[in-house]
Write a structure and sequence with these properties.
The chain has 692 residues and is an all-alpha fold. It has helices at 5-14, 118-133, 137-150, 155-168, 171-183, 189-202, 205-213, 226-242, 246-256, 263-276, 280-287, 296-308, 312-320, 329-339, 352-368, 376-387, 392-404, 408-420, 426-438, 442-455, 460-472, 476-489, 495-511, 515-528, 533-545, 550-563, 568-580, 584-597, 602-614, 618-630, 636-648, 650-659. The radius of gyration is 31 Å and the shape is globular. The termini are far apart.
């Protein structure tokens, strides 16, 4: 087989190597993406600050920019004239006399040529490299496919196209390209892996066994790379089962279990193989081991097998040992079925191909585990979903990996497929909601959160997510109601789970102008979790902004700074607190640090200008105000106020606001300096009435 993970990993690094596709050796590789996010959408609104100018909330993820749409006339990697199925763009025949490779086997030995004209290859190749570097898999697949028209035997370009097609989920075109690579003598580890997956899906077990016979790994002598032996041994065992060779399959499982620390993984799959052929006793014997199948699907397998053995009481007892049963639709349905006296069928897997899919999924999980995610994780997860479309874990892992790459639209397709299959799992739905937010589809995210809370009204995390979405959309009244429900459901939860809904509800109430009602929520959040810098900062800043409890407010903000000394928003709060207290010289240093950390924040630069003015440094103040204006203030009113300060100084602006009920006078009503009763000088600045 010769499809080791170590060798296959080279395929991914080639995409980021200078000269890839031009027969040069790779010299660099792109850093891998972060692990998939599994947090509740909204998370901790750590950057929130109170007051009209208290800074952005900071907990809404920035939407990813849409990638440039590739030319929809880009030909795919299949034979011209064939109508490719799947989700790839429609294709047209090549232009300018280019002819795509037909896929027929060569009739004579190939001749090495100097290479295609650069004007036909360089553009698509560079576009493909750029798309691959930004994880835009769909665009990369199209551009790589276009490039291989000019270089049909360039193995690196072919593998680049194959990686991108699989990552984009376009398995129809990926399989067609892999077939062509194998037939044309351009086979690679990846094309061989796709070929094997195709044979498994077709149930051609003899051909699969022939491929496993070609591996350099020897299971009996335990020779060869461990990863290759583990994957090859498991696939061989399932292929033997598919070919009706159960005794050979058990032997292969047992030999594979001797590899390193693989025994728990192998014995779990062996147990599923036993259950698939009806040997429930042997399956349960393996699953009863302490380290075998200790995950959700393992629990489901154990429960279904006990039911098949007429051990209803033991099956129901297992539910008591599981956490979150009510949050998992699969477990709720299974429990209800057993309690009703029915005997659920064993359906963790339904065919040997599902077993092979589990092999790919196991490797995907291993590759995604750790501080950095191996790019091969997505390849294996996609192959698992290709072989077993009903495997919700394969789709969920693909979605989360795509989300970690910033491919939120592709991730949403996987979440939508889970929904269509009735697999509305809370973790998957919350991740999907987060993906929708990051794709700048807030209305769809809110609709999904509403649907989740309708389907599972007792799921507290669903209500927190809905409240966060409403709050980000500045729909504070429905946000408060969502947090009310979450707090009620979490009344007996540990403090770590309860402080956030109180804090978020307090923010919503404060933004509605109901600060006195918000204060008890902030105080309760601090009682539950006293060292939360976000809460300390928000409440402290709000007090300062309203000239209330100034000593306590300053103490809160100082504690927040001690807990998070490099947070620009919190340092801004400290500087602003000193400013409001008239301690202008003390305000300068924290405000300068805040701007150094967040130099592109218009509000912070504006605040620093005010502090400089109050400290008697008008030239520096004007510089910061001009910079704040250049950085585009959040509102036209904020911009007008900065312009007024540049023109007339902070003291004149404050006097105008005092004379106009806290608002800046309109240009027609602005008094000239000699009409003003007395123009204050820099350094005599009174504490502003509106937070600056």
């Amino acid at each position: 087989m010769n499809h080791s993970l170590t060798a296959l990993s080279v395929v991914l690094t080639l995409l980021a190597a200078p000269g890839a596709g031009f027969a040069q050796s790779p010299t660099t590789s792109s850093p891998p993406p972060p692990r998939p996010s599994q947090g509740v959408p909204g998370g901790t609104p750590a950057g929130d600050q109170g007051g009209a100018e208290g800074g952005a909330e900071g907990d809404a993820p920035a939407a990813q920019p849409d990638a440039a749409e590739p030319d929809t006339t880009v030909p795919d990697a299949t034979t011209p004239g064939d109508a490719p199925e799947g989700n790839g763009p429609e294709t047209n025949p090549p232009e300018n006399g280019d002819s795509a490779q037909t896929g027929d086997k060569p009739t004579k030995e190939k001749t090495v040529v100097a290479g295609p004209p650069m004007d036909r290859l360089a553009g698509p190749y560079l576009a493909a490299r750029l798309a691959a570097a930004t994880s835009d898999f769909t665009a990369a697949a199209n551009y790589f496919s276009r490039a291989i028209i000019s270089a049909p035997d360039d193995v690196q370009l072919l593998d680049g196209a194959l990686v991108s097609l699989i990552s984009a989920g376009d398995m129809v075109r990926a399989v067609a390209l892999a077939d062509r690579m194998e037939e044309d003598g351009n086979a690679t580890e990846l094309s061989g892996l796709v070929k094997m997956a195709k044979l498994v899906k077709a149930g051609d077990w003899k051909a699969v066994l022939d491929m496993t016979d070609e591996t350099d790994a020897d299971l009996e002598t335990l020779q060869g790379p461990a990863g290759e032996r583990l994957m090859g041994g498991l696939i061989r065992a399932w292929a033997e089962l598919g070919a009706g060779q159960m005794s050979n399959a058990i032997k292969s499982f047992e030999e594979t279990a001797r590899i390193g620390n693989a025994r728990p993984i192998v014995e779990y799959e062996q147990a599923l193989a036993y259950a698939l052929v009806g040997d429930m006793e042997s399956a349960l014997r393996l699953l009863d081991k302490a380290d075998v199948g200790r995950h959700l699907d393992g629990a489901v397998a154990r429960i279904e097998i006990l039911s098949q053995l007429d051990r209803k009481a033991d099956a129901l007892k297992l539910f008591d040992e599981l956490e979150g049963v009510e949050e998992e639709p699969k477990l709720r349905k299974l429990k209800a079925e057993i309690e009703a006296g029915r005997k659920p069928a064993f359906d963790v897997i339904s065919a040997p191909s599902d077993g092979v899919a589990l092999v790919f999924l196991t490797f995907a999980g291993a590759l995604a585990d750790g501080e950095d995610t191996d790019p091969l994780a997505l390849i294996h997860a996609r192959l698992a979903a290709y072989l077993s479309p009903q495997n919700s874990d394969a789709r969920l892992m693909s979605a989360q990996l795509l989300q970690s790459y910033g491919q939120f639209d592709l991730a949403e397709k996987e979440y939508a497929a889970l929904n269509a299959a009735g697999e509305v799992r809370p973790a998957a739905e919350l991740a999907r909601i987060d993906a929708l937010v990051r794709a700048d589809r807030m209305d769809d995210a809110i609709a999904a959160a509403v649907a989740l809370t309708d389907a599972q009204p007792d799921l507290a995390s669903g209500w927190v997510a809905l409240g966060d979405l409403y709050r980000r959309s500045e729909k504070f009244a429905p946000a408060v109601k969502a947090y009310d429900r979450a707090i009620t459901l979490l009344k007996d939860a540990p403090p770590a789970a309860l402080w956030l809904p109180y804090y978020a509800r307090g923010i919503s109430l404060e933004r509605m102008g109901r600060f006195d009602q918000a204060v008890p929520d902030f105080e309760q959040a601090l009682k539950l979790s006293p060292d939360q810098p976000a809460v300390l900062n928000y409440l402290g800043y709000s007090y300062v902004d309203q000239n209330r409890n100034l000593d306590a407010a300053l103490a809160m903000i100082k504690k927040a700074v001690a807990l998070r000394p490099d947070d620009g928003a919190i340092l801004d709060s400290l500087g602003w607190a000193y400013f409001r207290l008239g301690r202008y010289d003390e305000a300068v240093l924290p405000m300068e640090k805040a701007v150094a950390i967040l130099p592109s924040d218009s509000l912070l630069n504006d605040h620093l200008g005010d502090v400089y003015w109050a400290a008697g440094r008008p030239r520096e103040a004007e510089f910061q105000w001009r910079r704040a204006l250049h950085l585009k203030p959040a509102t036209p009113e904020a911009a007008a106020r900065i312009e007024a300060k540049i023109e007339r100084g902070l003291d004149a602006v404050l006097a105008e606001e005092k004379a106009n009920g806290g608002k800046l006078a309109t240009p027609a009503a602005v008094q000239t300096p000699d009409q003003t009763a007395q123009e204050a000088k820099p350094g005599d600045t009174p504490a502003p009435a509106n937070g600056g």
